[in-house]
Amino acid sequence: MPFNVIVPSRIQLTSKWRHFVDLPDAVAMGVVLWDDIVIEDKLCYCYVCTEEEATYGQVIVNDGSKLAISDGFAGHTPNATICKTIDNQLFKKRLIELLVS
User: Would 6 be classed as within a structural domain?
Assistant: First the structure.
């Protein structure tokens, strides 16, 4: 039976001027369930701001790129793997199968 799944979310605009729906929680759960949907990932050092009032609760991600103000991971060991690209079609197929089962 055909159906549409509507999920409230922000619609974002990529740097290539394409709209996309940002579903970080669904994608994170999808990666846990089906690790073969990951096409590209990267080791990063992440931390959560817990003292700075203006940024409290934000996750800061350092991907190790050398910038003018930093030098790689600045002595920190990577503690997270960030998924940069997933197989969207495979993810959607499996998600729909899971929802209708």
Answer: no
- Residue 5 covered by a domain: no
Number of domains the chain is built from:
1
Residue 36 DSSP symbol: G
Tens place of pLDDT per residue across the chain (101 aa): 343 444 444 455 555 666 566 677 888 899 999 999 999 999 888 889 999 899 899 988 888 887 655 666 677 888 999 888 899 899 999 999 998 98
Report pTM.
0.65
Domain that residue 17 falls in: 11-100
Angle, nearest 10°, between helix axes 24-33 and 88-100? 80
